[in-house]
Amino acid sequence: MRFKESIYDRMPSSATLPAFQDVSKLHSSPRVAFLKKRIRLKGSSVSVPLGVILLFPVTVLTLVLMLMIRHPGSGGDGGGGSIFTGPPPPMMRRMNDQYDSVFHTGCLEPEVDGERADAVILVLARNKELDGVVQSLKSMERHFNRWYHYPYVFLNDKEFNSTFKETVVKYISGTAEFGTINSTMWGYPDWVNVADAEESIARQGDAAIMYGGMASYHHMCHFYSGYFYKHELLLKYKWYWRLEPEINFFCDITYDPFIHMERANKTYGWVIAVKELRETVPNLFRYVSGWKRKNNIKSQGLWEMFVSKPEEQEKLWAEEKDGPGTVAKEGIDPEAMEGESYNMCHFWSNFEIARFDFFRSQQYEDFFKTLEQSGGFWQERWGDAPVHSLAAGALLGKKDVHYFRDIGYRHTTIQHCPNNAPNKQLPREPWYDKNLDKAKAKEEDDYWAKWDRVQENGVGCRCRCDQEYEDVEGTGGSCIPQWVEAMGGWTSP
Protein backbone atom coordinates (compact mmCIF):
# COMPACT_ATOMS: atom_id res chain seq x y z
CA MET A 1 0.00 0.00 0.00
CA ARG A 2 2.73 2.46 0.95
CA PHE A 3 4.63 1.49 -2.22
CA LYS A 4 1.70 2.50 -4.42
CA GLU A 5 1.22 5.74 -2.55
CA SER A 6 4.89 6.62 -3.00
CA ILE A 7 4.54 6.03 -6.76
CA TYR A 8 1.54 8.32 -6.84
CA ASP A 9 3.40 11.05 -4.98
CA ARG A 10 6.21 10.92 -7.52
CA MET A 11 4.05 10.83 -10.64
CA PRO A 12 3.69 13.99 -12.72
CA SER A 13 0.34 15.71 -12.50
CA SER A 14 -1.55 16.77 -15.59
CA ALA A 15 -0.31 20.30 -14.95
CA THR A 16 3.37 19.25 -15.18
CA LEU A 17 3.08 17.00 -18.26
CA PRO A 18 4.25 18.75 -21.43
CA ALA A 19 1.61 19.60 -24.00
CA PHE A 20 2.12 18.47 -27.58
CA GLN A 21 2.72 22.02 -28.75
CA ASP A 22 5.43 22.48 -26.11
CA VAL A 23 7.55 19.55 -27.22
CA SER A 24 9.30 21.61 -29.88
CA LYS A 25 10.56 23.92 -27.14
CA LEU A 26 12.45 21.17 -25.32
CA HIS A 27 15.70 22.23 -26.97
CA SER A 28 16.04 24.84 -24.23
CA SER A 29 17.28 22.08 -21.87
CA PRO A 30 20.44 20.20 -22.93
CA ARG A 31 19.26 17.09 -21.05
CA VAL A 32 16.20 16.67 -23.25
CA ALA A 33 17.49 18.21 -26.47
CA PHE A 34 17.53 14.75 -28.10
CA LEU A 35 13.74 14.72 -27.92
CA LYS A 36 13.54 17.32 -30.69
CA LYS A 37 15.13 14.85 -33.10
CA ARG A 38 12.59 14.16 -35.82
CA ILE A 39 11.67 10.61 -36.72
CA ARG A 40 10.33 9.79 -40.20
CA LEU A 41 7.28 7.55 -40.08
CA LYS A 42 7.68 4.34 -42.06
CA GLY A 43 6.16 4.55 -45.56
CA SER A 44 5.54 8.27 -45.24
CA SER A 45 7.35 11.55 -45.84
CA VAL A 46 5.97 12.87 -42.53
CA SER A 47 8.36 13.21 -39.60
CA VAL A 48 7.55 14.01 -35.95
CA PRO A 49 9.71 14.83 -32.93
CA LEU A 50 10.85 11.86 -30.84
CA GLY A 51 9.29 13.53 -27.78
CA VAL A 52 5.83 13.33 -29.34
CA ILE A 53 6.28 9.61 -30.02
CA LEU A 54 7.42 8.91 -26.44
CA LEU A 55 4.75 11.08 -24.87
CA PHE A 56 1.88 8.81 -25.91
CA PRO A 57 2.98 5.59 -24.11
CA VAL A 58 4.13 7.61 -21.10
CA THR A 59 0.70 9.24 -20.88
CA VAL A 60 -1.09 5.88 -21.18
CA LEU A 61 1.13 4.32 -18.49
CA THR A 62 0.54 7.29 -16.20
CA LEU A 63 -3.23 7.02 -16.60
CA VAL A 64 -3.14 3.27 -15.86
CA LEU A 65 -1.12 3.83 -12.70
CA MET A 66 -3.48 6.59 -11.59
CA LEU A 67 -6.47 4.29 -12.10
CA MET A 68 -4.81 1.52 -10.09
CA ILE A 69 -4.12 3.89 -7.21
CA ARG A 70 -7.20 6.12 -7.29
CA HIS A 71 -9.80 3.50 -8.15
CA PRO A 72 -12.12 2.74 -5.20
CA GLY A 73 -10.90 -0.85 -5.26
CA SER A 74 -7.23 -0.22 -4.71
CA GLY A 75 -7.13 0.27 -0.94
CA GLY A 76 -6.73 3.11 1.55
CA ASP A 77 -9.50 5.12 3.18
CA GLY A 78 -11.24 5.72 -0.08
CA GLY A 79 -12.45 2.39 -1.30
CA GLY A 80 -12.07 -1.35 -1.78
CA GLY A 81 -11.07 -3.87 -4.48
CA SER A 82 -8.52 -3.65 -7.30
CA ILE A 83 -9.71 -3.00 -10.86
CA PHE A 84 -7.70 -6.05 -11.91
CA THR A 85 -9.24 -8.55 -9.53
CA GLY A 86 -11.57 -11.32 -10.63
CA PRO A 87 -14.85 -12.13 -8.85
CA PRO A 88 -14.90 -10.82 -5.28
CA PRO A 89 -13.65 -13.30 -2.65
CA PRO A 90 -16.19 -14.71 -0.18
CA MET A 91 -15.45 -12.16 2.53
CA MET A 92 -16.46 -9.34 0.15
CA ARG A 93 -19.82 -10.86 -0.71
CA ARG A 94 -23.11 -10.24 1.00
CA MET A 95 -24.73 -13.08 2.91
CA ASN A 96 -28.40 -13.67 3.53
CA ASP A 97 -29.12 -11.88 6.81
CA GLN A 98 -32.50 -13.42 7.60
CA TYR A 99 -31.07 -15.32 10.58
CA ASP A 100 -27.85 -13.50 11.34
CA SER A 101 -26.24 -10.20 10.36
CA VAL A 102 -23.28 -8.05 11.36
CA PHE A 103 -24.09 -6.21 14.59
CA HIS A 104 -22.56 -2.98 13.35
CA THR A 105 -20.89 -2.18 10.04
CA GLY A 106 -17.78 -0.03 10.39
CA CYS A 107 -16.91 2.14 13.39
CA LEU A 108 -18.92 3.56 16.27
CA GLU A 109 -18.01 5.99 18.99
CA PRO A 110 -17.47 3.51 21.87
CA GLU A 111 -19.95 3.85 24.73
CA VAL A 112 -17.31 4.18 27.41
CA ASP A 113 -19.93 4.90 30.08
CA GLY A 114 -22.63 2.65 28.69
CA GLU A 115 -24.30 -0.51 29.89
CA ARG A 116 -22.07 -3.53 30.60
CA ALA A 117 -22.92 -7.21 30.40
CA ASP A 118 -22.30 -9.78 33.12
CA ALA A 119 -19.26 -11.03 31.21
CA VAL A 120 -15.61 -12.04 31.52
CA ILE A 121 -12.58 -12.53 29.29
CA LEU A 122 -11.30 -16.07 29.91
CA VAL A 123 -7.63 -17.00 29.51
CA LEU A 124 -6.31 -20.55 30.00
CA ALA A 125 -2.51 -20.45 30.14
CA ARG A 126 0.62 -21.69 31.84
CA ASN A 127 3.39 -19.69 33.44
CA LYS A 128 5.74 -20.44 30.53
CA GLU A 129 3.26 -18.89 28.09
CA LEU A 130 3.60 -15.42 29.60
CA ASP A 131 4.99 -13.77 26.46
CA GLY A 132 2.17 -15.16 24.34
CA VAL A 133 -0.41 -14.05 26.91
CA VAL A 134 1.03 -10.51 26.92
CA GLN A 135 0.80 -10.44 23.12
CA SER A 136 -2.88 -11.38 23.29
CA LEU A 137 -3.69 -8.94 26.10
CA LYS A 138 -2.10 -6.05 24.24
CA SER A 139 -4.12 -6.86 21.14
CA MET A 140 -7.35 -7.24 23.13
CA GLU A 141 -6.81 -3.96 24.98
CA ARG A 142 -5.72 -1.97 21.92
CA HIS A 143 -8.65 -3.06 19.78
CA PHE A 144 -11.46 -3.48 22.33
CA ASN A 145 -11.05 -3.51 26.08
CA ARG A 146 -9.41 -0.09 26.48
CA TRP A 147 -12.97 1.27 26.09
CA TYR A 148 -15.00 -1.41 27.91
CA HIS A 149 -12.73 -2.63 30.75
CA TYR A 150 -14.18 -6.11 31.12
CA PRO A 151 -12.61 -8.30 33.83
CA TYR A 152 -10.25 -11.19 33.15
CA VAL A 153 -10.06 -14.65 34.68
CA PHE A 154 -6.79 -16.54 34.21
CA LEU A 155 -6.86 -20.31 34.74
CA ASN A 156 -4.00 -22.81 34.98
CA ASP A 157 -3.72 -26.46 35.99
CA LYS A 158 -0.83 -25.32 38.22
CA GLU A 159 -0.42 -22.28 40.47
CA PHE A 160 0.42 -19.05 38.65
CA ASN A 161 3.74 -17.66 39.81
CA SER A 162 4.21 -14.09 40.98
CA THR A 163 5.99 -13.06 37.78
CA PHE A 164 3.00 -14.09 35.68
CA LYS A 165 0.50 -12.29 37.92
CA GLU A 166 2.53 -9.12 38.32
CA THR A 167 3.19 -8.91 34.58
CA VAL A 168 -0.28 -9.47 33.16
CA VAL A 169 -1.97 -6.87 35.39
CA LYS A 170 0.29 -4.24 33.80
CA TYR A 171 -1.36 -4.84 30.45
CA ILE A 172 -5.06 -4.88 31.29
CA SER A 173 -7.62 -2.20 32.04
CA GLY A 174 -10.06 -4.50 33.81
CA THR A 175 -9.69 -6.49 37.02
CA ALA A 176 -7.94 -9.86 37.14
CA GLU A 177 -8.55 -13.09 39.05
CA PHE A 178 -6.23 -16.10 38.98
CA GLY A 179 -7.46 -19.63 39.52
CA THR A 180 -6.15 -23.18 39.60
CA ILE A 181 -7.96 -26.07 37.94
CA ASN A 182 -8.24 -28.98 40.34
CA SER A 183 -7.82 -32.65 39.54
CA THR A 184 -11.57 -33.26 39.23
CA MET A 185 -11.59 -31.01 36.13
CA TRP A 186 -8.12 -31.60 34.72
CA GLY A 187 -6.71 -35.03 33.99
CA TYR A 188 -8.34 -38.45 33.84
CA PRO A 189 -11.65 -39.13 35.61
CA ASP A 190 -11.45 -41.69 38.41
CA TRP A 191 -13.09 -44.41 36.32
CA VAL A 192 -10.57 -44.21 33.45
CA ASN A 193 -7.89 -46.88 33.18
CA VAL A 194 -4.90 -44.55 33.11
CA ALA A 195 -2.49 -47.11 31.68
CA ASP A 196 -4.82 -47.81 28.75
CA ALA A 197 -5.39 -44.09 28.17
CA GLU A 198 -1.67 -43.34 28.18
CA GLU A 199 -1.03 -46.20 25.80
CA SER A 200 -3.66 -44.81 23.42
CA ILE A 201 -2.11 -41.35 23.59
CA ALA A 202 1.34 -42.80 22.88
CA ARG A 203 -0.05 -44.65 19.82
CA GLN A 204 -1.51 -41.39 18.53
CA GLY A 205 1.91 -39.79 18.90
CA ASP A 206 3.50 -42.65 17.00
CA ALA A 207 0.91 -42.18 14.25
CA ALA A 208 1.85 -38.46 14.02
CA ILE A 209 -1.69 -37.33 14.79
CA MET A 210 -1.46 -33.60 15.49
CA TYR A 211 -1.13 -33.09 19.28
CA GLY A 212 -2.32 -36.69 19.67
CA GLY A 213 0.75 -37.71 21.65
CA MET A 214 0.43 -34.88 24.19
CA ALA A 215 -1.53 -35.88 27.30
CA SER A 216 -1.81 -32.19 28.30
CA TYR A 217 -3.59 -31.41 25.04
CA HIS A 218 -6.12 -34.19 25.65
CA HIS A 219 -6.70 -32.80 29.16
CA MET A 220 -7.20 -29.28 27.79
CA CYS A 221 -9.77 -30.43 25.21
CA HIS A 222 -11.57 -32.47 27.88
CA PHE A 223 -11.62 -29.48 30.24
CA TYR A 224 -12.94 -27.06 27.62
CA SER A 225 -15.53 -29.61 26.48
CA GLY A 226 -17.16 -30.26 29.83
CA TYR A 227 -15.68 -28.45 32.82
CA PHE A 228 -14.52 -24.88 32.23
CA TYR A 229 -17.99 -23.42 32.81
CA LYS A 230 -18.12 -25.11 36.24
CA HIS A 231 -14.98 -23.42 37.60
CA GLU A 232 -15.76 -21.44 40.75
CA LEU A 233 -14.31 -18.18 39.41
CA LEU A 234 -16.66 -18.29 36.43
CA LEU A 235 -19.92 -19.21 38.15
CA LYS A 236 -20.88 -15.58 38.70
CA TYR A 237 -20.77 -14.70 34.99
CA LYS A 238 -23.33 -15.06 32.23
CA TRP A 239 -21.03 -14.54 29.23
CA TYR A 240 -17.41 -15.29 28.35
CA TRP A 241 -14.96 -14.35 25.60
CA ARG A 242 -12.25 -16.96 25.20
CA LEU A 243 -8.76 -15.54 24.66
CA GLU A 244 -5.78 -17.73 23.76
CA PRO A 245 -2.08 -16.90 24.05
CA GLU A 246 -0.37 -15.67 20.87
CA ILE A 247 -3.37 -14.32 19.01
CA ASN A 248 -3.81 -11.10 17.05
CA PHE A 249 -6.78 -8.86 16.36
CA PHE A 250 -6.68 -6.65 13.27
CA CYS A 251 -9.74 -4.41 13.57
CA ASP A 252 -11.07 -2.06 16.21
CA ILE A 253 -14.16 -3.46 17.93
CA THR A 254 -15.95 -0.28 18.90
CA TYR A 255 -19.23 -1.85 20.01
CA ASP A 256 -19.80 -4.25 22.91
CA PRO A 257 -20.21 -7.82 21.54
CA PHE A 258 -21.69 -9.07 24.81
CA ILE A 259 -24.44 -6.45 24.84
CA HIS A 260 -25.24 -7.01 21.17
CA MET A 261 -25.33 -10.80 21.63
CA GLU A 262 -27.72 -10.32 24.52
CA ARG A 263 -29.97 -7.88 22.66
CA ALA A 264 -30.12 -10.17 19.63
CA ASN A 265 -30.88 -13.19 21.85
CA LYS A 266 -27.80 -15.02 20.57
CA THR A 267 -26.16 -17.93 22.36
CA TYR A 268 -22.87 -18.64 20.60
CA GLY A 269 -20.53 -16.48 18.51
CA TRP A 270 -17.56 -17.44 16.33
CA VAL A 271 -15.17 -15.89 13.81
CA ILE A 272 -13.47 -18.81 11.99
CA ALA A 273 -15.02 -22.08 10.80
CA VAL A 274 -12.69 -24.77 9.44
CA LYS A 275 -12.52 -28.51 8.89
CA GLU A 276 -11.14 -30.82 11.55
CA LEU A 277 -8.44 -33.38 10.84
CA ARG A 278 -10.35 -36.58 10.17
CA GLU A 279 -7.85 -38.78 11.98
CA THR A 280 -8.46 -36.93 15.26
CA VAL A 281 -12.20 -37.73 15.46
CA PRO A 282 -12.84 -41.04 13.68
CA ASN A 283 -15.73 -42.01 15.98
CA LEU A 284 -16.96 -38.70 17.41
CA PHE A 285 -19.88 -38.35 15.03
CA ARG A 286 -21.31 -41.81 15.70
CA TYR A 287 -21.57 -41.01 19.43
CA VAL A 288 -23.06 -37.56 18.81
CA SER A 289 -25.52 -38.91 16.27
CA GLY A 290 -26.46 -41.79 18.55
CA TRP A 291 -27.10 -39.41 21.44
CA LYS A 292 -29.16 -37.15 19.19
CA ARG A 293 -31.27 -40.07 17.97
CA LYS A 294 -31.71 -41.55 21.47
CA ASN A 295 -32.99 -38.24 22.81
CA ASN A 296 -35.15 -37.53 19.76
CA ILE A 297 -33.36 -34.25 19.06
CA LYS A 298 -34.69 -32.63 15.89
CA SER A 299 -32.62 -30.22 13.83
CA GLN A 300 -33.53 -26.54 14.01
CA GLY A 301 -31.62 -25.84 10.80
CA LEU A 302 -28.02 -25.61 12.02
CA TRP A 303 -27.25 -29.33 12.17
CA GLU A 304 -27.11 -29.46 8.37
CA MET A 305 -23.98 -27.28 8.38
CA PHE A 306 -22.04 -30.20 9.87
CA VAL A 307 -23.43 -33.04 7.78
CA SER A 308 -22.16 -34.18 4.38
CA LYS A 309 -24.56 -34.32 1.49
CA PRO A 310 -24.91 -37.71 -0.28
CA GLU A 311 -22.89 -36.50 -3.27
CA GLU A 312 -20.16 -35.27 -0.91
CA GLN A 313 -20.08 -38.68 0.78
CA GLU A 314 -19.72 -40.42 -2.58
CA LYS A 315 -16.76 -38.17 -3.41
CA LEU A 316 -15.24 -38.98 -0.04
CA TRP A 317 -15.66 -42.69 -0.63
CA ALA A 318 -13.88 -42.35 -3.96
CA GLU A 319 -10.96 -40.41 -2.47
CA GLU A 320 -10.32 -42.23 0.83
CA LYS A 321 -9.18 -45.81 1.25
CA ASP A 322 -9.40 -47.78 4.48
CA GLY A 323 -7.55 -45.31 6.70
CA PRO A 324 -8.44 -44.90 10.36
CA GLY A 325 -11.91 -43.45 10.51
CA THR A 326 -12.32 -43.39 6.71
CA VAL A 327 -14.35 -45.51 4.31
CA ALA A 328 -14.41 -49.24 3.79
CA LYS A 329 -13.84 -50.94 0.44
CA GLU A 330 -17.51 -51.80 0.10
CA GLY A 331 -18.29 -48.08 -0.24
CA ILE A 332 -19.99 -47.88 3.15
CA ASP A 333 -18.94 -45.06 5.42
CA PRO A 334 -18.34 -46.52 8.92
CA GLU A 335 -19.03 -43.08 10.40
CA ALA A 336 -22.40 -42.66 8.72
CA MET A 337 -25.37 -42.72 11.07
CA GLU A 338 -28.84 -42.96 9.52
CA GLY A 339 -27.40 -41.85 6.22
CA GLU A 340 -25.56 -38.87 7.70
CA SER A 341 -21.82 -38.38 7.86
CA TYR A 342 -19.73 -35.69 9.56
CA ASN A 343 -18.17 -33.22 7.08
CA MET A 344 -15.52 -32.19 9.67
CA CYS A 345 -16.73 -28.58 9.88
CA HIS A 346 -16.50 -26.83 13.23
CA PHE A 347 -16.35 -23.37 14.76
CA TRP A 348 -12.75 -22.80 15.79
CA SER A 349 -13.25 -22.47 19.52
CA ASN A 350 -10.03 -20.64 20.42
CA PHE A 351 -12.20 -17.61 19.67
CA GLU A 352 -15.73 -17.85 20.97
CA ILE A 353 -18.12 -15.50 22.69
CA ALA A 354 -20.93 -17.43 24.30
CA ARG A 355 -23.44 -17.79 27.09
CA PHE A 356 -22.43 -19.98 30.00
CA ASP A 357 -25.98 -21.22 30.49
CA PHE A 358 -25.86 -23.11 27.19
CA PHE A 359 -23.07 -25.30 28.56
CA ARG A 360 -24.58 -25.42 32.04
CA SER A 361 -27.88 -26.76 30.72
CA GLN A 362 -28.96 -30.32 31.48
CA GLN A 363 -29.10 -31.12 27.77
CA TYR A 364 -25.48 -30.16 27.23
CA GLU A 365 -24.42 -31.99 30.41
CA ASP A 366 -26.08 -35.17 29.12
CA PHE A 367 -24.45 -34.66 25.74
CA PHE A 368 -20.99 -34.22 27.27
CA LYS A 369 -21.32 -37.19 29.64
CA THR A 370 -22.19 -39.44 26.71
CA LEU A 371 -18.99 -38.39 24.96
CA GLU A 372 -16.85 -38.54 28.08
CA GLN A 373 -17.97 -42.05 29.00
CA SER A 374 -17.12 -43.27 25.50
CA GLY A 375 -13.43 -42.67 26.26
CA GLY A 376 -12.91 -40.76 23.00
CA PHE A 377 -11.11 -37.87 24.67
CA TRP A 378 -8.18 -40.26 25.26
CA GLN A 379 -8.66 -43.19 22.87
CA GLU A 380 -8.86 -40.57 20.12
CA ARG A 381 -7.97 -36.88 20.08
CA TRP A 382 -11.36 -35.21 20.26
CA GLY A 383 -11.04 -31.45 20.31
CA ASP A 384 -13.37 -29.11 22.16
CA ALA A 385 -14.06 -27.25 18.89
CA PRO A 386 -15.94 -30.08 17.14
CA VAL A 387 -17.59 -30.99 20.45
CA HIS A 388 -18.92 -27.45 20.96
CA SER A 389 -19.90 -27.20 17.30
CA LEU A 390 -21.83 -30.45 17.09
CA ALA A 391 -23.61 -29.57 20.33
CA ALA A 392 -24.59 -26.21 18.84
CA GLY A 393 -25.72 -27.93 15.66
CA ALA A 394 -27.90 -30.34 17.59
CA LEU A 395 -29.32 -27.97 20.22
CA LEU A 396 -29.38 -24.51 18.65
CA GLY A 397 -31.14 -22.94 15.70
CA LYS A 398 -29.85 -20.72 12.92
CA LYS A 399 -30.89 -17.55 14.71
CA ASP A 400 -29.01 -18.52 17.91
CA VAL A 401 -25.49 -18.39 16.45
CA HIS A 402 -23.57 -15.30 15.33
CA TYR A 403 -20.71 -14.98 12.84
CA PHE A 404 -18.41 -12.11 13.90
CA ARG A 405 -17.25 -11.50 10.35
CA ASP A 406 -16.38 -7.88 11.19
CA ILE A 407 -13.64 -8.98 13.65
CA GLY A 408 -10.15 -9.54 12.24
CA TYR A 409 -8.40 -12.40 14.06
CA ARG A 410 -5.50 -14.82 13.72
CA HIS A 411 -4.40 -17.81 15.78
CA THR A 412 -1.29 -19.71 14.63
CA THR A 413 -1.41 -19.38 10.82
CA ILE A 414 -5.19 -19.32 10.38
CA GLN A 415 -6.57 -15.85 9.83
CA HIS A 416 -9.81 -14.04 9.07
CA CYS A 417 -9.63 -10.33 8.30
CA PRO A 418 -12.51 -8.33 6.79
CA ASN A 419 -12.43 -5.37 4.48
CA ASN A 420 -13.13 -1.93 5.94
CA ALA A 421 -16.63 -0.54 5.50
CA PRO A 422 -17.09 2.38 3.07
CA ASN A 423 -18.15 5.68 4.65
CA LYS A 424 -18.09 4.06 8.10
CA GLN A 425 -14.57 4.80 9.35
CA LEU A 426 -13.94 7.25 12.19
CA PRO A 427 -10.77 8.93 13.49
CA ARG A 428 -8.78 6.78 15.88
CA GLU A 429 -7.49 7.69 19.32
CA PRO A 430 -3.95 6.35 19.93
CA TRP A 431 -3.32 3.57 22.43
CA TYR A 432 0.20 3.58 23.82
CA ASP A 433 1.66 0.62 25.66
CA LYS A 434 2.67 2.18 28.97
CA ASN A 435 5.18 -0.63 29.51
CA LEU A 436 7.34 0.59 26.61
CA ASP A 437 9.39 3.76 26.30
CA LYS A 438 7.50 6.58 24.58
CA ALA A 439 9.28 6.32 21.24
CA LYS A 440 8.74 2.56 20.95
CA ALA A 441 5.12 2.81 22.10
CA LYS A 442 4.42 5.50 19.50
CA GLU A 443 6.13 3.52 16.76
CA GLU A 444 4.04 0.48 17.63
CA ASP A 445 0.79 2.42 17.67
CA ASP A 446 1.55 4.35 14.49
CA TYR A 447 1.31 1.04 12.63
CA TRP A 448 -2.39 0.79 13.53
CA ALA A 449 -3.04 4.43 12.66
CA LYS A 450 -2.64 3.52 8.96
CA TRP A 451 -5.52 1.14 8.36
CA ASP A 452 -6.48 -0.49 5.06
CA ARG A 453 -8.64 1.30 2.53
CA VAL A 454 -12.32 0.54 2.38
CA GLN A 455 -13.86 -2.00 0.02
CA GLU A 456 -17.31 -2.56 -1.36
CA ASN A 457 -19.31 -4.75 1.04
CA GLY A 458 -16.64 -4.24 3.70
CA VAL A 459 -17.80 -4.47 7.31
CA GLY A 460 -14.70 -3.79 9.40
CA CYS A 461 -13.61 -0.82 11.50
CA ARG A 462 -10.06 0.44 10.99
CA CYS A 463 -8.79 -3.02 10.03
CA ARG A 464 -5.17 -3.50 9.06
CA CYS A 465 -4.86 -7.03 7.75
CA ASP A 466 -1.62 -8.98 7.72
CA GLN A 467 -0.98 -9.58 4.02
CA GLU A 468 1.58 -12.30 4.74
CA TYR A 469 -1.25 -14.70 5.58
CA GLU A 470 -4.04 -15.88 3.30
CA ASP A 471 -7.50 -15.49 4.70
CA VAL A 472 -8.96 -18.87 5.60
CA GLU A 473 -12.11 -18.07 3.59
CA GLY A 474 -10.02 -18.42 0.43
CA THR A 475 -8.83 -21.95 1.25
CA GLY A 476 -10.32 -25.40 0.81
CA GLY A 477 -10.33 -25.91 4.57
CA SER A 478 -12.87 -23.17 5.21
CA CYS A 479 -16.45 -23.98 6.21
CA ILE A 480 -17.89 -20.62 5.21
CA PRO A 481 -19.71 -22.23 2.23
CA GLN A 482 -21.48 -24.63 4.62
CA TRP A 483 -22.42 -21.75 6.95
CA VAL A 484 -23.68 -19.58 4.11
CA GLU A 485 -25.79 -22.40 2.68
CA ALA A 486 -27.30 -23.12 6.10
CA MET A 487 -28.12 -19.42 6.51
CA GLY A 488 -29.82 -19.06 3.12
CA GLY A 489 -27.01 -18.43 0.64
CA TRP A 490 -25.22 -15.43 -0.84
CA THR A 491 -27.16 -12.33 -1.85
CA SER A 492 -24.43 -10.83 -4.06
CA PRO A 493 -22.40 -12.51 -6.82
Write the layout of secondary structure elements.
Elements: H1 2-10, E1 38-40, E2 47-49, H2 50-70, E3 119-124, H3 130-148, E4 152-156, H4 162-168, E5 176-180, H5 194-206, H6 215-226, E6 239-243, E7 247-249, H7 257-263, E8 268-270, E9 273-275, H8 284-294, H9 310-319, E10 345-347, E11 353-355, H10 356-359, H11 362-374, H12 376-379, H13 384-395, E12 401-403, E13 409-411, E14 414-416, H14 438-448, H15 480-487
Parallel strand pairs: 3-4, 3-6, 4-5, 8-12
Antiparallel strand pairs: 1-2, 6-11, 7-13, 8-11, 9-10, 13-14
Describe the model.
The protein is an alpha/beta fold and 493 residues long. 33% of the residues lie in helices and 10% in strands. It has helices at 2-10, 50-70, 130-148, 162-168, 194-206, 215-226, 257-263, 284-294, 310-319, 356-359, 362-374, 376-379, 384-395, 438-448, 480-487, and strands at 38-40, 47-49, 119-124, 152-156, 176-180, 239-243, 247-249, 268-270, 273-275, 345-347, 353-355, 401-403, 409-411, 414-416. A 7-stranded mixed β-sheet has the order 5-4-3-6-11-8-12. Helix 3 (130-148) links the parallel strand 3 (119-124) and strand 4. The two termini are 27 Å apart.
Spell out the key features of this protein.
14 strands, 3-stranded antiparallel β-sheet, alpha/beta, 10% strand, 7-stranded mixed β-sheet, 15 helices, 493 residues
